[in-house]
Amino acid sequence: MGKKQKVIKPDDYFEHGPFQITRFGKLVYFQNNITAEQHEELMKKIESSYDKQVSIINSLVSDIRKLIIQCNPLSLLKYAHSRFIQSLIGIESEVQLSKENVHIGRELEYIQSVLAASTPLNSSNELEDQSYVFFEISDKIQQLYSVYENFMYYYTVHHAKNMITSDPDYISFLIEAQAANFHRGDRYAVHEITHIKDLLTPHKDELQKIFNISVAQLLEGLQNIQQSLSQGMLQSMNKLEYLMELFEQKKVDIVDQEDALQIIESDKELKNLRDEFAEDFLGAGLHDLNKLTDWSQIFLENLSWSLGQCNNYFTRNQFPGWPVIEMPIYRKPFIKIDQKYYCFDYYNVFDNIYRVIQKTITDLDHDYKVKWKDIQAKATEDIIINLFKKLLPGCIVFQSNYYPIGTSLKQCAENDLLVLYDNNLIIIEVKSGSYTYTSPMLDIESHIKSLQTLIAKADSQTERTLKYLKSQETVKIYNEQRIEKATIRISDFDEITQMCISLDNFNEFAAKADKLKFLKMKNDTVSIAVDDLRVYSDLFDSPSVFLHFLKQRKLATQSKVALNDELDHYGLYMSHNMYSITADQMDSDHINWYGYREKIDSYFANLINENMKLIKPKQEIPRRIEEIINYLDTSNIRKRTILSTFLLDLSDEARQWFCDAINNTLIRQKETKRMTIASCFGEANYSMCCHQPYLRELEHQYVTDYALAAILQNQESSRLVIHLYFNEKDILYAIDFELLTPADIPSEKIDILSQLADEYAESRIMSYKRQNGLQKIGRNDLCPCGSGKKYKKCHLR
Fold it and tell me: Among candidates 336, 330, 335, which has minimal Cα distance to 349?
């Protein structure tokens, strides 16, 4: 009779009708037990309520607009920005945001968009208290977003009959694409300015020509905006605190408030501090672009809406004024009020500024459109090359590689990038085109076509390149003029990775592109954005660890892992190492891997503060293994990643066993004055020698025969022979290794090695008995010889 399986209670459980949600730690399981009859009834109920839901949203949109045009626009925008800042207090990771936090974060952009498309009725000054109207606007917008979240399902059911397919995966994508409209923040704050600098610097002459602005001016202004919108309120309070301290130092006898005011007015330093605080905290100084930047008038004018200037947001035929349709703020992130230009919304500036500038310039200078596209492609490739050179120091990169489709160079295909590092080859296709910004409710097909162009096409292109590289023992690649640039031997590479790297960030789909069936991905291509590659370049200090992660990331494309964020892959890697195995062991296919990127978000959120001492989030690696990997990373050992990957593949327990084996061997050899071989059998097959000063070396052939005998006896597919060299202080200073397979066993030595295998096995059994004080070994215990079999089925016989 088998053992009774232990029941593990969930941390959380929720049930609503046929739907169940269960949480175990960071794993969230979704289960749908609905019957066909229940499903049909639910669909009919949803379909019958569609018109009512549209009416509710239209009514809310109308109410909100009527309230907004009653308000002083500047006061309302300041209020909305303060709400946004308050919603982020204590939040370091996106996963910590509640639904209410998300909705509050979207208030500001909707209010600014409504103002851009409406002429305010109110002529009141900024100081008039309209807080009761502001609160009502907030409440209405909260209702609007809440109703819309459910409306996505009503819309999908209502339009299902007109869709090109009833495929559940297609319908699921439609819902996810609509939900993605709520996502903001393409990259971490510490990367914003660098990202824009890398992309716009090649266009410096055109920026100067069209806008009379330099790249340096643009970047300085954006830095000031970033500082003001994220930390301006806090800095204003610090000014007030300093003003009060300074006032205490300078004050004399004060009879009343009038005396205090006179002291401030008569003291230039106090007066300036008072005025700065009043302008920033009570006025709009934190948002005034003329104060924050020295940008030209023409630049500000082209990137700003005047009040009521956008004349089509509320007049469109479908869903007029809805916040999920392209809002005016997407096209122009700034707003002009009383002849002054202001910036309030952080995310819409930094998420969209590059594409906004691109569209504005190419609209004003049509002849530059093609040139912009070409420069953009080259700039994106250059960014990726620099990031890989940081991740893999010393790597070789080939850019813009041409190769014949047939036997002639007259017809060639192009590959964007080849990255060579040790025995690793990375084939990269770069996609610098823009992802569609059309609402999926208006044109879901444009979203599918974008993904097909930016991901699926790259998948087939990398496969075509790989096929060419495998077509002969050695192949040549050429430059655009068909001049040979390199010869590549595919057999030099044990690990080949195909990648698609996009300029635009559509993270929620790229992270699981292989699971989107309509893309028909045929290969294990890893799809990520430049933003995520930039994050990885900061997270990984070791090329060996990065390549090991990249291997796990590739394996995840073939497993049940389906994530909504690229950095969840890294979070899973930190927690579970070979995480695709963890996923495939799960019973359910519908798992939400919740909160795995939280440590990463927290680290980068605090990185903007240079005074904080932060610990980089990474996988825990024991000291001895880290010592080996650090040595390998700085060495020129051929195929060194074979050893690093082998060690990093080990489980936590096996890693610790490996480190203990090193430490115990070093101690024991000092005591016995004799060199020994430490071996492991089973899933991780290795034989390890720890070389120390003043010890007699084991002959190289003896160690090799020892390993080959183990391969022969245990029918192993391979065994790693590792030589570690330590100085008198047990510090590692050199490494050598060899991967042996059955093919390395000479036929004439099989009998000798079989005899040695028996002798070594008996020796291990005797040693095991001696070390454990045993007279005999239990029948059902594992045989100490290393075969992996029970003793009764091995050497007991």
Answer: 330
